[in-house]
Fold this protein.
Amino acid sequence: MNEAIASQPQRNIVSRLWNDKETRSVIIQIIAFAAIFAFFFFMVRNAISNLESIGKDISLDFLSQPSSYDISQSLIEYSSRSTHFRAMIVGILNTLLVAVFGVILATLVGFLLGVLRLSKNWLTNKLAYVYIEYVRNVPVLLHILLLHGIIVHALPLPKNAINLGDTAFLTNRGFFIPSPSFEPLFWVVAGLFVAGIFFSIWFSRYAHKVQDATGRHYPVFWINLGAIIGIPVLAYFILGSPIIWEIPELKGFNYRGGMVVRPEFVALWIALSLYTAAFIGEIVRAGISAISWGQSEAAAALGLSRGRILNLVVIPQALRIIIPPLTSQYLNLTKNSSLAIAIGYMDIVATIGGVTLNQTGREMESMTIVLLLYLTFSLLISSFMNWYNKRIKLVER
Amino acid sequence: MTEKNYIPGEHPDLPPPSNMIGPVAWIRDNLLSSPANIIMTILSVWFLYIVIPPTLNWFFLDAAFTGEDRNACRAVADGACWAFIGERFKLFTYGFYPEEHRWRVNLSFILLIVALIPVLFDKAPFRSLGLKFSIAFPFIAGWLLVGGLGLEPVPTSQFGGFMLTLVIGITGIAFSLPIGILLALGRQSNLPIIKVFCVSFIEFIRGVPLITLLFVASTMLSYFLPPGTNFDLLLRVLIMVVLFSSGYMAEVIRGGLQAIPKGQIEAADSMGLKYWQSMRLIVLPQALKISIPGIVNTFIGLYKDTTLVIIIGLLDPLGIGRASLSDTKWTGLSTEVYIFVAIFFFVSCFGMSRYSLYLENKLETGHKR
């Protein structure tokens, strides 16, 4: 009996180690680390030997070589003699362009849809519901292709363009709109506008302070509107309209002058925005209906008007619920903009991950750059939104 | 005197006034209750008037259902040319799967329904046996479709159409849930190395678009494999889709895990349950129940994302449609193709989201006020 007990520790040393919580966690982690390390080692070794056997190395030299392909829409100067690096920058800017415009439109339409979904009018409510369900349950790629198809097939050739008041022309080669050229005096207007924004931020804080201290109430909204919009508009006309609009004209088979918005951009922008808007609509509806009736009733009992109830009580609380899922919708929109490649809009994936990759055969380097770029966007957007979320968070005792 | 006399207090209830019940009252309350409401109603009716008649015309009244080619369609009617879809229907369903083996696809589809019943309805007969079959189903279907072991092999490059969508969608759904659960548990783990690995994996996956991962699968992955291995493209895509959706799944399940009070785990510990026992018996059943809406949403997202495979050259219905459009007989009918595919996706995804609502109501265990 005694012998049996005495011999147990030696016999079960493995199981004793295993049954000790601390030791076990160390063992599991060592095994996991070894497995992950072995996996990556295996992959990297394969990659090195594979690259060696076909005589490739890893270098980013290809970025400084001429790209020799054209990009139809570019925010910066670009030609086929520019480098692959410049093509990549064009791609990044195009992605950002569609993401920024998409986020703005999606937010506007999304909030409108959310409000319509809360409307007491049965018909409006159901229309918004049908729209949201249709859009949410069909792949976004399909929306993009459908819209692109409609724009390209249904809009006329440049010579029969749809004419909007002799200034803008809708054709299947793009939307031709007037392009502004700024005279030096315009920058005065722009400066006033920026100053107006800063003034209104300061003034809102000041008015808040005065109201807290004395109870006096300024018409903050109207004063700010005057500072941001009114004064710059006034200055614009006093200085003699310092923007010259260049209006597109039909020359030969196409329009010259002005700006052209490509059908690819329009299709991608509208489709992405309307798709994301459906999700945002549901988020807004859920956020607002999560605020209990008691809140509005209490505010009404204090004698607040309907508009002030919404502004001061319901919306600030609803925003706390709305913001986190809204962030992930913005991220989704940015990531979905990579579908641009399906209709030939030159974004990051289509430039560096598409044509550049195929021309230079640098799969590893190109794809790594693309992945890193998207990771950076995602981290930037989500950290900004986390900061904002923290700012408006409920401060509890 | 015709009026009847009642004992005070015994007067029978009168019916409500006629303008407070029935359709009239409903219309007044829901459509015309205030000036703003009336304007909304008028705008909505105007919108319906603008949209519905042309849509109906295009879909049915002006549509051509038979015809040899596009010109034959146009000769009959100006609307949709559904003859095109009719002619290509088999292609849309099976892709280029060999004609003589299509019974295997059909059989897999029937087995899919059999496998789904015990998963979807907990009152189904022989449920525990059925669930075992459901777990085995992806492997059985894989064997049926790909072949080998007695069946003639069919190369996966011939997969296509709705069948391909189902293959990718169901593989993704079946494998991403367990992997997602493991990742979520790993993220909550107190072993730092495991936690760091899971967090970085999840954040990486969620930070990049699926399309770039598919590009990685189609261009770059072969470099990382031992020389001479030839990996099937569909298999590479499946792996990427599973990894992608398991990242999202992990975050959804993490939400559920975080909602479980710490007391539950401590109670399980004090009962002497080991880690996996307490997870399996106490934590996960509650956490998964809370996260059902999110899980189904991830499934729907994954199912819709299967369309992206056309960009790396697999032929799902959208790919088949686009390829068919290059046929000169049917050129220019893209709208018909896209709408047809959209209807397919709408029906399946809408069905999934309705089922998730039903499940939520069923699992609601009496905290409703």
